[in-house]
Amino acid sequence: MTNLSITNFDDSVEFSVEKSRQNTATSGVEIKIEQLHKYYGQVAVLENLNLNIRAGEFVAVVGRSGCGKSTLLRLIADLEKSSQGHIHFSTRDEINKNDIRVMFQDPRLLPWRSIVNNVKLGLPKDKESQAVALLKRVGLEDKVNLWPSQLSGGQRQRAALARALLHRPKVLLLDEPLGALDALTRLDMQTLIEKLWVEQGFTTVLVTHDVSEAVQLADRIILLNRGEIAQTFHVELPRPRQKTSQFTALEQEVLQAVLAT
What we know:
Elements: E1 3-7, E2 30-40, E3 43-53, E4 58-62, H1 69-76, E5 84-90, E6 100-104, H2 115-119, H3 128-137, H4 153-165, E7 171-175, H5 183-200, E8 203-207, H6 211-217, E9 220-225, E10 228-234, H7 245-259
Parallel strand pairs: 1-5, 4-8, 4-9, 6-7, 7-8
Antiparallel strand pairs: 2-3, 2-5, 9-10
Helix pairs in contact: 3-4, 4-5, 6-7
């Protein structure tokens, strides 16, 4: 079973961020993954995985299909239990299920609820004004009372993002949330996610098949292969990121590493 625990930070611990985030408070928590194993019957999906994610860090996980990316995300979210190993959340305060939010490829909106009611699902009625304000932040101020079927795919994902962020999470887990979107909408959503991450400082783990997206958004890229960390790439590019020669070179390096697995 996964052991989800909380560790208190020493006051001297600091997380150094890029210039674009130096004036932003970090609300995220550190995640420590130790000797994590996950088996489905005799099939090993994750084996002896060790990973430390700093508070407020944006980590992307890449790799071929079946390498364990989504399984890792589900274990962090406590949606599944590990076969062996520990996941620790280091924070001064108690952490609960609302502090860890997941955004999937499917927005998972309830078709019989309006957009604003989807966003504040499970929250008190007095949260409606906050839900409306957050929908405005994600560009859906004129869609508040519409049904999910009346929105485009990109708009539904914006609503799903607003729903996740209304809880002011300490950890945001993104499981291929932009995979079904067209290229331009995907770029818009990447910009929006990065902007809100910079403002709120939550710890983010993104699972993606898109190497360019990983380089665009992440502080660090983890390559999984057969359930183990095969390689780590540090993205030391200024934000907001431009498709410079350095960007392209790193993108090709990560892509070649993925293809070699």
